[in-house]
Amino acid sequence: MFLCFCATAQAADFSFCGSAKETTAALQSAIDAGGLVCVKPGDYEITGVTLKSGATLHLEKSARLLSQRDKSGFAGAAKRAIVFAEDASDVAITGEGVIDGRGGAAVIMGHEDERQRGLYFIRCKNVRLEGLTLRNPDMWSCYFRECDGVVVKGVTIHSHANYNNDAFDIEAKNVLIENCTIDSDDDAICFKSDNPDFVVENCEVRDCRISANCNYIKCGTSSYGTFRNLNVHDCTLREGTASKFWDWKKHVPGAKTSGGGISGIALEVVDGGVMENVVCRNITMESGVQTPIFIRQGSRHTGARPSVLKNILIENVTATSSCRIASSITGVAGRRPTDITIRNVKFALTGGGTAEDVAKPVPEQAAGYPENRMFKGALPAYGFYVRHADNVRFENVEMTLLENDARPAFFTDDAAVSQRNCMFE
C-alpha cells in the first residue's frame, strides 16, 4: 500500500489501497496537487472524489474505482457522485479502467437524495471523458448540468443495478458524444432542462450503440428551458441485456418482450420550454423498441411560459416495433408541435389492433407524464397518430405489418398533415 508521485508535481501514479476513507483521502490529495493522476491496476474503494480545474484522472486498464458499499452517508449530500466537479474547467477522466457504483447493494425507487450518481459535473467548462467504463451506480451514470464544452469518446456504460439508471443525462451546450456503447435500465441518451434560463444547444451524438429498457434517445421529460440545435445520427438501438425492474408485458398493449425500450426517439416539451432545430437521422432500431417515434408537446408545468416545439427532422430510420402503441405526434390546446418532417423511414410494426382501438376516444392527458402509454391503451392507428399539430410532413414512409390490424396506418385529429410516397402493406 503506497502512494508514489512522479518527479513533477503535475503528474502522479496512484496505487494506495486502504479503507474507503483512507483511499479517498489519498486519491483526493493526489488530485488536489493538480495535473495528471494515473490510477494503477487494482481495486480502490472510495466514498467519492472531486476534480479541480486542470485535473485529469487516468484509469489504467484493470484499475477500478469502487463506490463504498455503505451508502448511508449520501443522504442530503450535494455531491452524491463517485467523481464530482463543480465550476471547474479543463477536467478529464480517461483510460481503460472502470468506475463501479455497486448500486445493487440497496435497490431504491425514489429518494434521489439518498443515492449516488456515477459522474456529476455542475457548471464545468471543457469536460472530457474517454475510454473508461461506468457500471451500476445507485441512479444516473453520468450527469452534465449546465456545462459548456463536453467531449465523450469511446465510453462504455452498463447500468442495470437500480431504478433511474440513466446512462447520459445532458443539460449542457457544445457537446459531442461519439462511439459509445450503452446498456442502461432507464433512459440511455437523455437531454434535460431544469433551468429555464439555460440553453441546451449545439449537441451531437453519433456512432453509438445503444441498449435500454426505457427511452433510447430522449429530449425531455424535464423541459423548463430551451433545447436548440441537437443532432443525433448513425446510432443503433436494441433491447437492454437485462431487465431487472420492468415487465412491459403486464402494462403495454401487445408487448412482445418484458424488457426493451419505450420509445426509440422521444421528443417532449411539457414544462413550458422550447425545442427547436432537432435532427435525428440514420437510426437503426434493431429490437425491443415498443414505439419508434414519440413527439409530445403538453402542459404539465407551464405556468405563464408558452411552450414551443418546432423544426424537427427525423429521417433514414428503420425499426421493428415490439408492441401495439403506434408512433405519435401530439399537442394540446394552445400548444401545437409544428414543422415536423418524418422522411425515409421503414417500419415493421406489430399489428394486432382492433376496431375497438379505432373507436375508443384518446384522452387528452394535457398534464400527463409524457411517454408512449400515456393515452391509456393502443392508439387508433398502427403507424402514426397525429393530433393538435401543424405542418407535419411524411415523405417516403414504408410500413409493413407483422400481424393483421384493423386500424389505419395514419389517424389524424385536428392536425395539418401531408403525405408523399407513403406505402402500407
Fold blueprint:
Blueprint: E1 2-5, E2 11-15, H1 20-32, E3 36-39, E4 42-46, E5 49-50, E6 56-59, E7 63-67, E8 81-86, E9 89-95, E10 98-100, E11 117-122, E12 125-130, E13 133-135, E14 142-153, E15 156-159, E16 168-178, E17 181-184, E18 189-193, E19 199-206, E20 209-212, E21 217-223, E22 226-239, E23 261-269, E24 274-297, E25 308-321, E26 327-330, E27 338-349, H2 355-359, E28 384-401, E29 410-420, E30 423-424
Parallel strand pairs: 2-3, 3-6, 4-7, 5-8, 6-9, 7-10, 8-11, 9-12, 10-13, 11-14, 12-14, 13-15, 14-16, 15-17, 16-18, 16-19, 17-20, 18-21, 19-22, 20-22, 21-23, 22-24, 23-24, 24-25, 24-26, 25-27, 26-28, 27-28, 28-29, 28-30
Antiparallel strand pairs: 1-2
Provide structural commentary:
With 425 residues, this protein is mainly beta. It has a single domain, classed as Pectate Lyase C-like (3 Solenoid). Helices cover 4% and strands 52% of the residues. The longest helix has 13 residues, at 20-32. Residues 1-9 have low confidence and may be disordered. The chain has a 30-stranded mixed beta sheet that branches. It has two helices and 30 strands. It has helices spanning 20-32, 355-359; strands at residues 2-5, 11-15, 36-39, 42-46, 49-50, 56-59, 63-67, 81-86, 89-95, 98-100, 117-122, 125-130, 133-135, 142-153, 156-159, 168-178, 181-184, 189-193, 199-206, 209-212, 217-223, 226-239, 261-269, 274-297, 308-321, 327-330, 338-349, 384-401, 410-420, 423-424.
